[in-house]
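Practice problem: predict the structure.
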Amino acid sequence: MTERFPAEWEPQSAVLIAWPHADTDWADRLGDVEDTYIALVKALVRYTRVVICVADEDLQTYAEARLRSNRVDLSRVRFVEVEYDDTWCRDSGPITLRTDDGFNLLDFRFTGWGGKFEASRDDRLIENLEAHGVFDRAHRTPIDFALEGGAIETDGAGTLLTTWKCLHERHPDADRASLETRLKDWLRQDRVLWLDHGYLEGDDTDAHIDTLARLAPNDAIVFQACDDPSDSHYAELRAMSDDIAALRTRDGKPYTLYPLPWAQPVLDEGRRLAASYANFLIVDGAVLMPAYGDPADAQAAAVLEKAFPGRDIVQVPCRSLIWQNGSLHCITMQLPQGLVR
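Answer:
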């Protein structure tokens, strides 16, 4: 059987999210983050369907009411009652391979980013979604290895992009060669591109690639740049941009590079938050990008318009998300066309 890991810009059937509630880490600022989720779903249903995890029937009733009052088309929304610890579906949701006759849902271990947070219910999310009949023509493959969806990027043609820091933090006893062999095998890739630099203050994922650099169609890479020499990120992100400039396509050519602008520092009681424009979500016909109420929002949209020609660029207010150290891509997981019943 042949299998392939599709790129995010390929056709999709839905996007998976989990609704925040009082028993998640959002409890202290639930109203603010609910507004972000409403804006996200309202944007998503213009382009695709949405599968929303809810903890119980009462939460579904509440979420439906909030969405309906904001004139969201609920015919494009499916609710699934399932347990979850938090709402980071990029890392707890399925990494999906296309097969000859359907799909293979790779169910890697989710450990709360190396044991930083309780994650036992999130680790069972894919299994429970499968039990609820969400997926069509799919089988699940449990893999006893910690790997999050936010840690990897593919071009759909056998090239994987990731960061050494994250994979090394999860598996400190494994060398790069052995990690590369396993990633190639499980994800059906024939080459792995590593970034050795790049980090964001306020990021507890140990440098997930989806906060730093993203693959784009036509051999391109969109990445978070920093043009402020006085900023604490400047040296590291400059080194990361050099890493990216040194990468080569399968044909041995440099990638087309799209640097994203740098937002002004966002602080929460003195703590720097990880406001990355690289944490965008690609859906059918559009790119949904995180907006932070910063003048650089418009500049980031212009860069994404060049990197993804022919797609709408839709800004979603995400300032509330970075309080918990993630952003738009982190709370979503695209599901390939044909996967959702």
